[in-house]
TrEMBL record:
SUPFAM superfamilies to which the protein is assigned, alphabetical: lambda repressor-like DNA-binding domains
Native source species: Streptomyces tardus
Domain HTH cro/C1-type intervals: 20-73
Pfam families: DUF5753, HTH_31
Record protein name field: Helix-turn-helix transcriptional regulator
A GO molecular function held by the record: DNA binding
Length: 275
């Protein structure tokens, strides 16, 4: 039986999953057996153990009752719920690391896979200033940016298509030097053999099909999946009925957006205005 290795140092979600698996193994239970006692499926238990799903308070309390661990897991689940990663994102990350194709559309900020460390740090520092997250959560997010980018350095290389709303380029983040380095990072990204970079200009107006960020993955088995998020939660979807219309809209977005050459020219022009 394939058994995924767990790294409890990766995140609070991973630490919870590792602890849950250890407690289950001590009792010699399968995931299905624990799920039956908790009131969920073995598949759900597997998703929590491997960090693809965050444990809810109800799940943790049910696991405590089944395992006879008092409120141990419920207390540990609080750290997961207070983590920097919004609900739904850990499940997405598990698929991003193996995707054959990644199609990104972002509004307002450079997407994490294209951020420099300095840009990511400036972005999260602002979130700390607004008391939206803690300094520890900010550090976790910045470190995650690096891990996500490193995970894509593999063979065969995934195709990465990134369409940036013009607001991503015009919103200053950090010092002018930080923005200049970020522009340079985008130009380097555009030169890679497995990437496409386009800008969706404001002039598109109502022809822009999305108002929120979306990511469409093509998995190794050629299935497609969708990740979208609001300010408070993310949603990962694999049902083709929902994903295929978004993929079609993404293709339309690419048709309306600036070409890569035009997008690169825009970034060069912005750099000229950067001290």
């Amino acid at each position: 039986m394939n058994r995924k290795d767990l790294n409890p140092d990766e995140s609070p979600t991973a630490r919870f999953g590792e602890r849950l698996r250890a407690l289950r193994d001590e009792r010699g239970w399968t995931q299905d057996e624990l799920g039956e006692r908790v009131g969920c499926s073995g598949t759900h238990v597997s998703a929590v153990e491997t960090g693809r799903r965050s444990p809810t308070r109800r799940f943790a309390a049910g696991a405590d009752k089944a395992l006879g661990t008092g409120d141990l897991l419920e207390r540990h689940s609080r750290a997961v719920r207070h983590t920097a990663l919004i609900e739904g994102f850990p499940e997405y990350l598990a698929h991003e690391t193996r995707a054959a194709e990644i199609r990104l559309y972002e509004v307002g900020v450079i997407p994490g896979l294209l951020q420099t460390s300095a840009y990511a740090s400036a972005l999260e520092a602002d979130a700390v200033r607004r008391e939206a997250i803690t300094p520890e959560q900010a550090q976790e997010r910045v470190q995650l940016v690096g891990r996500r980018q490193a995970a894509l350095d593999r063979s065969p290389s995934p195709l990465i298509i990134s369409v940036l709303d013009e607001s991503c380029l015009l919103r200053p983040m950090g010092t002018p030097d930080v923005m200049d380095a970020q522009y340079q990072r985008l130009l380097e990204f555009a030169e890679l053999p497995n990437t496409v970079l386009q800008v969706a200009p404001f002039s598109m107006g109502a022809r822009r099909p999305f108002s929120l960020p979306v990511t469409v993955l093509t998995l190794p088995e050629r299935a497609v999946a969708l990740y979208a998020e609001s300010a408070h939660r993310g949603h990962f979807e694999r049902e083709s009925t929902f994903v295929l219309p978004i993929l079609m809209a993404y293709h339309q977005l690419q048709t309306e957006a600036l070409s890569q050459a035009e997008s690169v020219a825009m970034i060069h022009q912005l750099r000229k205005g950067t001290p």
